[in-house]
Write a structure and sequence with these properties.
The protein is an alpha/beta fold. It has 2 domains: 159 residues, Lysozyme-like (3-Layer(aba) Sandwich); 73 residues, PGBD-like superfamily/PGBD (Muramoyl-pentapeptide Carboxypeptidase, domain 1), CATH 1.10.101. One of its GO terms (cellular component) is outer membrane.
Length: 306
């Protein structure tokens, strides 16, 4: 196969790929009506990115089925992170276009999540019945998490996405979704500056107070959940809808028990969670653990880079 040598890379890139890339770049150029002279030399200062949210999902399917569904079905995502070895990252939708990943959803009152978000799907088996009748969840590989963290960091930095707006699908659609599930390490992401977390010291103090004096009522939980972004009914009752929102909150911030119970620990975490930003300082850049294997992908093709 003929190819072109890229200096410093020591790798032959097929000429066909070079041509495809050139055509793709040409396709990105704006089109104007024939005969209209458009001057693009001046750029307005009053503008920003359309991207306000990053939404994390799992596929509940394998690599082949996930790629087929997200590229040929009636749902999509901007990125797909596989569980292959090495991990691949596919870009399926350009970031300046809407992917159909969030569905009916809401966050801080914003109900058009698809219009203002980047969706990242992770290949993962999701939930399944355990022998004791409870649910069990598939875990994520260290290589997957490293790839997702690198991707989220890059997207958040380029688009200025705030920590409280890096969310789970279950956060924005708690009545119908549970992904990416309780085994996704939200605290680890928050420690890296990629998400929100609560003040754990304050939460311990609040929990002791609630255990001594009693847990607040349903209206308090609903008001606090709304304060931190969730769409929740203001019924003043622990109805089924409110219980599902509490369970979604617990999956994110107290994954060891996410049964929707309005208990003292959940109330304490809610009270210790900032409305904006995170109570944790961002830490060092995440690196794969010993033995992890991550091959970066040529974004847009899914082809592994050398």
């Amino acid at each position: 196969m003929s190819g072109r040598l890229i200096p410093g890379r020591h790798r032959l890139v097929p000429a066909g790929l070079v041509l495809c890339a050139m055509l793709a770049l040409a396709g990105c150029a704006p089109r104007y009506p024939a005969g209209v002279d458009v001057d693009r030399s001046i750029s307005a200062v009053s503008q920003d990115s359309r991207v306000r949210f990053i939404v994390i999902h799992y596929t509940a399917a394998g690599n082949t089925a996930s790629l087929l569904t997200l590229s040929r079905g009636d749902v999509s995502a901007h990125y797909l992170v596989t569980d292959s070895r090495p991990v691949k990252v596919y870009q399926l939708v350009p970031e300046d276009r809407n992917a159909w990943h969030a569905g009916k959803s809401s966050w801080y009152g914003h109900t058009s999540i698809n219009n203002a978000s980047i969706g990242i799907e992770i290949v993962n088996g999701g939930e399944s019945p355990a022998p004791d009748g409870t649910l069990q969840w598939a875990g994520y590989s260290p290589a997957q998490l490293h790839a997702v963290m690198a991707l989220v960091r890059d997207i958040a930095q380029r688009h200025g996405v705030r920590p409280e707006n890096i969310v789970a699908h279950s956060d924005v659609a708690p009545q119908r979704k549970s992904d990416p599930g309780p085994l996704f390490p939200w605290k680890r992401f928050a420690l890296a500056g990629l998400g929100r977390w609560y003040d754990e010291t304050a939460a311990r103090g609040y929990q002791a107070q609630f255990e001594a004096n009693g847990v607040p009522g349903p209206a308090w939980f609903q008001a606090q959940l709304e304060r931190v972004g969730y769409a929740v009914p203001r019924s003043g009752a622990l109805d089924a809808e409110t219980t599902r929102v509490i369970a979604a909150f617990q999956m994110h911030y107290r994954p060891e028990r996410c049964d929707g119970t309005a208990d003292a620990a959940t109330a304490a975490i809610l009270l210790a969670l900032p409305t904006e930003g995170s109570a944790l300082a961002s830490g060092p850049v995440d690196r794969p653990g010993r033995g992890d294997s991550v091959a970066p992908a040529a974004i847009g093709t899914g082809v592994e880079a050398p």
